Amino acid sequence: xxxxxxxxxxxxxxxxxxxxxxxxxxxxxxxxxxxxxxxxxx
Length: 42
Prior knowledge:
About 95% of the residues lie in helices and about 0% in strands. The protein has one helix and no strands. The chain has one helix at about 1-40. The chain starts with a helix and ends with a helix.
């Protein structure tokens, strides 16, 4: 019973971390694309 609960909480933490990394990498990509477009736009 205790092991199951620990596994569930670990999965939840991993899921939150995945969402965090996915969101931050998406923002990073969008910002970089904006900078590149601004550099190449006369």
